[in-house]
From TrEMBL:
Assembly, per entry: Monomer.
Keywords, comma-separated and alphabetical: Aminoacyl-tRNA synthetase, ATP-binding, Cytoplasm, Ligase, Nucleotide-binding, Protein biosynthesis
One Pfam short name: tRNA-synt_1d
Reaction catalyzed: tRNA(Arg) + L-arginine + ATP = L-arginyl-tRNA(Arg) + AMP + diphosphate
Localization per record: Cytoplasm
Residue intervals of the DALR anticodon binding domain: 468-586
Enzyme Commission code: 6.1.1.19
CDD domains, per the entry: Anticodon_Ia_Arg (cd07956), ArgRS_core (cd00671)
Upper lineage: Bacteria, Bacillati, Actinomycetota, Actinomycetes, Streptosporangiales
Aminoacyl-tRNA synthetase recorded as keyword: yes
Name this polypeptide is given: Arginine--tRNA ligase
Amino acid sequence: MAPVVPLAVQTRSRLVSAMDRALPAEHTGADPQVRRSDRADLQANGLLAIAGKLRTHPRAVAEKVVASLDGADLIASCEVSGPGFVNLTLADSALLGQVEARLADDRLGIPRSLAGTTVIDYSQPNIAKEMHVGHLRSTIIGDSIARILGFLGEDVIRQNHLGDWGTQFGMLIQHLAESGGEWRRENGSAAGSLSRLNRLYQDSRARFDSDEEFAERARGRVVALQAGDAGTLRSWQEIVAESKLYFDEVYERLGVLLTDDDAVGESFYNPFLAEVADELEKAGVAVNSDGALCVFFEDIAGQSGEPLPLIIRKRDGGFGYAATDLAAIRHRVGTLAARRILYVVDVRQALHFRMVFETARRIGWLPGEVDAVHLAFGTVLGKDGKPFKTRSGRTVRLISLLDEAVDRARLVVKEKSHDLAPGGLDTTATVVGIGAVKYADLATSRAKDYVFDVDRMVSLHGNTGVYLQYAHARTRSILRKAGSPLTARARVHRDLALEPAERALALKLDDFEPALTEVAHTYEPHRLCVYLFELAQSFTSFFETCPVLKAPDPEIRDNRLMLCRLTGDTLRIGLGLLGLAAPDRL
Ligand SMILES: NC(=[NH2+])NCCC[C@H](N)C(=O)O
């Protein structure tokens, strides 16, 4: 299927050709800067700058270009305005042609414009601990970016950098051995066992901090674990396996792409850490400082004003979090052949990643042509504007949040839905509730904090997941009532004139690809949310002013049905790229 080129891009090409014809040769290739505009469909602003360079009156330049514009099939009218802008109105037939061409392709004419390998590190929960809202953000944002890059043709390798290694496991395993604390699964779900493990983990931490003799035994346990002592290793493996089961339960509930194959935890890099440290030391990138192996950064000062170290190996010989991340970069570039590595991690780790990336550049593990980007995100806040905690001050469990959202969604659906899918209330409440949580997270600009407010998330008014799911279901319901098959060849009558609301909708439908490309460049899924919300609003205005089933004549009805169909398809694919389901009935 040939890609469908957005009308703005087509218009730009026509203007460039006209400029080639009308202007002196040294200005070929200049950008006419075609943008969407309020005054007309499109506006070209680039001629002003060119006129400046040519020392000619800008309006005269614009008039000349417009006079040599060849675009009758595409552009209905074109006029010079103000100091030398060009306002362009697209031909109705061109807008309808786009609708027809997009409907003929199951990717809606969107090309696979990316090609390369991207590693994306996201979710990253910690073994023996329950997932919390911070992991929710990483999981949801990372998953959507993975989907969008993949849709645009990128080869995406997901890496779930599980916290499954380190001194804390010595503590936990020792405590389990001594206390006989029972945590194993009683029923089918791993949520209960993880909750018990989480509590035992906290107990072990408290004991470690208060009981020096226990701390000594726990440190011995770390040594045993690292040396591969059979019993210790078995305990660790058991805890890891149970934690993974629990993560998978959460992932399935959330409907994210992550599977067990993506789980490449910190322990995976353990065998390479000594080598990483040696190489850094030999290359002189890391130096011995007070018995620890560190990398220093002249331009990054700590609180005391001294250059801040990145610790590779601690004084006791243990390797830190940074050593693991450096080993991971080596693996991702050297073995996985990434041209880009994305880290979806809390903004509080910004300095860590800056130092890790800089270290990897210095030693050459991260060559200039490979990008490494920390996609930092803000904190989830409670209604009091403080980091989201339970009343007793504990971090909030992800599962209970999801349960709450689904319960709240059930009430909304029960009250509002007249057209429930066969799966009934429970299925729909799940789709709406989980979708609401995901959408609320994605719709906020990534770097910002946001307030976790379930009522707002499941609201039918405003920029919410359920608003978009309803808009999608509405398009499907219209098509069902019209008896119009969802997949048959598009029947578009190109010679008909469009009403303003139809034009606005058709124009918006043509903007899907630029919206996706923008997310791929900025890694900000909220831009796709904004697009889909505006599309749903354009659809609502269209639907309110242009009767579809009762259209004045059969050909107009056909055209309107096709607009409904393309809106529905665009919403379905767009919601899918955000990780939301789009049921046909709601
Ligand atoms: N490659 C990484 N360091 N990824 C982030 C890991 C996040 C860590 N497990 C945490 O919960 O804070």
